[in-house]
Each structure stands twice: as structure tokens, then as C-alpha cells.
Design goal:
This protein is of the alpha/beta class. It contains eleven helices and eight strands. It has an eight-stranded parallel beta sheet with strand order 1-8-7-6-5-4-3-2. β2, α2 and β3 form a beta-alpha-beta unit. α1 runs antiparallel to α10, α7 runs parallel beside α8 and α9 runs antiparallel to α10. The longest helix has 17 residues. The radius of gyration is 18 Å and the shape is globular. About 50% of the residues are buried.
């Protein structure tokens, strides 16, 4: 089993923080993350700055970043216009967010699930025409702050319609941190024999202390190829349109779990260096680190496998 880490700190990690970082600091954060050895990063969001001011200046951030063949910069988009903006930058991948409930769609994107699926179709077409990879995240797949429990049949319905778009990857997101391990396994089964979706990814929050348990289950799934897991340096992050949606799983904590358990993540990441970046970011945000490794420290042992 192998896992690909997707660093979402520069986007999801910052979008709900009270302090808005300037463009230079956001670019410096991404450079520091690349220096750690992280190679796939959700760097920016091409959304309206009046809705998410922390994400303003996406083009200016990307213009400061090194263009490297071994690094993928992801831009989050909500429609074709966002995809067109991304295509004019160093982004090599777009991620389109499609909530699975109308209630969340209305508050987060001012549309319905049907309307968002139309936006996803047009945005993915723009991305493919530009030669970019296209991923779609199914938001609130584990539970919605407004609709409550989300039946698997509802997730399956939206998943089927997204899979028909010809995308490269689909992600199941526990946007508000209510998911449990059994849901991870059941959602994985939607993809297991589906040739329409080449790759699977998960996005977990640790809001109710289940994020790392969910990640451990996802990392042990068999027969699905490399599983991608989102994480945010320092555990920062949350959705500004989802009440109490705090606590992304921390990249350094997830790295400790996977490396200690002998899971192949493609490279060796150094925990002390990661915690230094997390602490630096906490100082910039004037907000405490949410992960535990920055406080507890690494354990000197190696893999137990």
C-alpha cells in the first residue's frame, strides 16, 4: 500500500483564519513546504475575494513560486471562470468542489447540487483543454452541518454524475469532521470497480477526534492503487461556510502515523523540520498549532514494519 500526501495548508489551512496573510508570506509558506519534500500542494483558490479574502491574489502568489517538473500546484475552482484563471498560471491541476447536499451548496456556492454539477462539467472541460489534471472533491460527503446525516445513496448519486465527467481523481471530504472509519470503507467501495475514476483521495478533519482513525483506514485500503490523503501543516484549516468546521489533520502528525507504520509515502519526510514550519506559520497567523507533534516532538524509532 502506498499513500500520496496532498498538502492543503496554503489553501484550506488559511481560508478560515482571522488573520489574512499577505501574498509574499503565502508564497513563502509554499516554498517552505516544497523544501520539506512535499510535492503535491493545493496552493491557491480562484474564488471571489469578497467571499474569501484570505485567498485573494492567487495569480500573484503563483507567480512567486518555482516551476518544477516534480511539484504539482493545485488551484481550487468553482466554475469555468476559475478554471480559466488557473490555466493562465503555474497550476497543473484544478480541484472542483461539489457538495453533495443542496443545503450546503446554497450557503457555500449559492446554487444547487444540479447547478454545481453543471459548473463542474464546464470547469473540467476548461481544465482538460488546458492540459491540466482535474480532480473533484465531494464536500460534506460524511455529514452536512445543515442537512445532517448524508445517506450513502446520496453520495453515490452525486459520485456517479461526477465520474461521468472524465476526471482524473475523486475525493471524499469530511468537511465538518463527523466521519467514522466505517464510512471510509463504504465510500471506497463506490470506486473499487469503477474504471471511470483512476484515483481516489480523502479529505479529513479531526474536529471530533476521528480524523486520524479515518486516515489510518484509508491508508490500509487494498486494491485501489495509491490513495491520496489531504493534510494541512500545523492542522490549520476549516470552511468559512460550515459552522465549527475546524481541525484539518496535521501533515506532520499524519506523516508520523504513516512513516511509523511503514506506509510508503514516496519519500522520507523529517518531522522536526515539519514542526518548525508549523510553528513558523502559527506565529504568522497569531494562532496556536492544532497538531500534536509540534508539542510532543518526534519519536526516535523508525518504521515498525
Amino acid at each position: 500500500m502506498s499513500v500520496e500526501l496532498v498538502e492543503v495548508g496554503p489553501r484550506d489551512g488559511l481560508q478560515n483564519e482571522a488573520r489574512t496573510l499577505d501574498i509574499d508570506t503565502r508564497a513563502e509558506l509554499i516554498r517552505r513546504l516544497v523544501d520539506l519534500g512535499l510535492r503535491r500542494l493545493e496552493a491557491v483558490s480562484f474564488v471571489r475575494p469578497d467571499r474569501v479574502p484570505q485567498m485573494a491574489g492567487a495569480e500573484e502568489v503563483l507567480a512567486q513560486l518555482p516551476v518544477r517538473d516534480d511539484v504539482t500546484y493545485i488551484g481550487l475552482v468553482l466554475n469555468a471562470r476559475g478554471a480559466e484563471r488557473a490555466a493562465a498560471t503555474a497550476c497543473s491541476e484544478i480541484n472542483i468542489v461539489v457538495p453533495v447536499t443542496d443545503e450546503f451548496c446554497a450557503r457555500n456556492q449559492n446554487t444547487t447540487v444540479d447547478g454545481m454539477l453543471q459548473h463542474a462539467a464546464s470547469a473540467s472541460a476548461v481544465g482538460r483543454d488546458a492540459g491540466m489534471s482535474v480532480s473533484v472533491t465531494l464536500a460534506v460527503a460524511f455529514g452536512c452541518p445543515f442537512a445532517g446525516d448524508v445517506p450513502l445513496s446520496r453520495v453515490r448519486d452525486v459520485y456517479d454524475r461526477v465520474a461521468d465527467l472524465g476526471i482524473d481523481e475523486i475525493a471524499f471530504a469530511d468537511t465538518i469532521g463527523v466521519g467514522v472509519p466505517g464510512q471510509v470503507s463504504r465510500m471506497a467501495e463506490l470506486v473499487r470497480r469503477d474504471s471511470r475514476v483512476p484515483r481516489i483521495r480523502f479529505h479529513f478533519h479531526n474536529t471530533r477526534n476521528t480524523g486520524y482513525a479515518n486516515a489510518a483506514v484509508a491508508s490500509s485500503l487494498d486494491g485501489l492503487g495509491t490513495i491520496a490523503l489531504d493534510a494541512s501543516i500545523g492542522g490549520f484549516g476549516g470552511c468559512p461556510f460550515a459552522p465549527a468546521a475546524t481541525g484539518n489533520i496535521a501533515t506532520e502528525d499524519l506523516t508520523y502515523l504513516l512513516q511509523r507504520d511503514g506506509v510508503d509515502i514516496g519519500t522520507r519526510l523529517e518531522i522536526p523540520a515539519m514542526t518548525r514550519v508549523a510553528t513558523w506559520l502559527a506565529d504568522e497567523l497569531d494562532s496556536p498549532v492544532q497538531g500534536l507533534l509540534a508539542r510532543a516532538g518526534d519519536f526516535p524509532g523508525g518504521s515498525l514494519r
